[in-house]
């Protein structure tokens, strides 16, 4: 990490040093998991859109949207600070709503999803991590030192 990046992560929104980075301690595992899920969801959606977009456009676009949400949460956790914490909390809540909505939709109307998304069946294809991850991140973001 460059000196500039480290210095930025240690400053709060008011400019004073906080001495805390959201990406340290247990937050480091969250950063890693969100980074992995960013790559997984983006790769999956890109390949699916290139290979056969007409087959399940909704599923592929939802996987791409999940990748964007994961990327933003990863960025927010790495950036640190009060605004990044709030942004990550909002995105984690949106992610959880997405997982629950898409998960329920895939169970009630499977024909709408001829191909799975990252959030299908509450993330069953990813060992339910997509439903557990935002809950864990929200707990960490609320309890971690400010």
TrEMBL record:
<keyword id="KW-0812">Transmembrane</keyword>
<keyword id="KW-1133">Transmembrane helix</keyword>
<feature type="compositionally biased region" description="Basic and acidic residues">
    <location>
        <begin position="1"/>
        <end position="19"/>
    </location>
</feature>
<feature type="transmembrane region" description="Helical">
    <location>
        <begin position="123"/>
        <end position="141"/>
    </location>
</feature>
<protein>
    <recommendedName>
        <fullName>Integral membrane protein</fullName>
    </recommendedName>
</protein>
<feature type="transmembrane region" description="Helical">
    <location>
        <begin position="57"/>
        <end position="78"/>
    </location>
</feature>
<keyword id="KW-0472">Membrane</keyword>
<feature type="region of interest" description="Disordered">
    <location>
        <begin position="1"/>
        <end position="20"/>
    </location>
</feature>
<feature type="transmembrane region" description="Helical">
    <location>
        <begin position="29"/>
        <end position="51"/>
    </location>
</feature>
<feature type="transmembrane region" description="Helical">
    <location>
        <begin position="87"/>
        <end position="108"/>
    </location>
</feature>
């Amino acid at each position: 990490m460059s000196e500039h990046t480290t210095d930025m992560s240690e400053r709060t929104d008011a400019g004073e040093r906080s001495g805390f980075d959201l990406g340290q301690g247990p937050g480091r595992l969250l950063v890693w998991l969100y980074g992995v899920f960013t790559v997984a969801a983006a790769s999956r959606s890109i390949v699916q859109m290139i290979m056969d977009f007409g087959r399940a456009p909704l599923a592929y676009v939802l996987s791409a949207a999940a990748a964007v949400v994961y990327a933003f949460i990863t960025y927010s956790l790495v950036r640190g600070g009060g605004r990044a914490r709030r942004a990550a909390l909002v995105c984690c809540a949106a992610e959880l709503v997405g997982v629950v909505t898409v998960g329920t939709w895939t169970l009630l109307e499977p024909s709408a999803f001829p191909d799975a998304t990252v959030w299908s069946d509450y993330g069953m294809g990813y060992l339910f991590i997509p439903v557990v991850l935002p809950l864990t991140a929200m707990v960490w973001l609320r309890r971690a030192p400010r």
